[in-house]
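Hello again, I could really use a second opinion on something today. I've been staring at a protein lately and its backbone has me curious. You're getting the sequence in one-letter code plus the fold written as tokens. I'd be grateful if you could look everything over and explain what you see. No rush at all, and the record is pasted right below:
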Amino acid sequence: MTVTDQQTQKQQEADALKVKGNEQLKLNNFEKAIDFYTKAIEIQPNAIYYSNRAQANIKLENYGLAINDANESIKLNKDYLKAYYRRAVAYSAILEYKKSLNDANLVLARAPKDKGCLSLKKELVKIMNQLKFEKAIEMEDDKSRFNVDAVMESYSDLDVSYKGPELKVTKIPAKSKEEQDGLDVEITRDYIDSMIKLFKDGHKIPKAHVMAILYKANQLFVNESSMVEIGLSRSKTSDKEYQDEEVEKITVCAHLSLQW
């Protein structure tokens, strides 16, 4: 048997094991699938075998192993897009969103209609925009979060290139030395609708708006009563003397505050 014949035979044996692995993968027998792919790799390393084993590892939530397998697959064939996609899925699962998006973009650059990758990218963009928003509302200290002057100062630094919805904020001077200045934040239905559309389009509102909205929310919570009475209705229909409902009032703590 020639060297070429030996290589052909090894390839055939490895392919047969890959087929068995694929069958187990379809049956959701992921560990058995991994065994077959591993045997195939031992005989003849191949980008497809590594990528398929990565998929089985993803199903078992072995994301680190899946990333390793995808890396090996890419080393053997840098043009094998499934390996990049599966690595993107694994990265996303361990919250490595930027790395996941990089791989997703690479796949879509070559296969722009790939449904799985399009769906993954959409979700990644949504998550990353949310993280950006959360980061935008982080302030240096508690005192500055709802400080009137800090909010107004942020408005003076508002980026002139911002073309989103306008939020009207007016400073209300204190009536006496004992009082503090306040803010009138006009959050209209039109503003909310425009803000939602802005988020859906992948944009964000400026920090000045975030600070003003948080100021308004905090004032609403602060003005709420800390104690409230709740009426509880109960009836005892099995006894004639309890034909009418009896109302019992209890007092509960209903104080709300923003948590940071």
Remarks:
- Residues 25 and 65 are 16 Å apart (CA to CA).
- Confidence is low (pLDDT under 50) at residues 139-144, 232-260.
- The first strand starts at residue 168 and ends at 172.
- The chain has eleven helices and four strands.
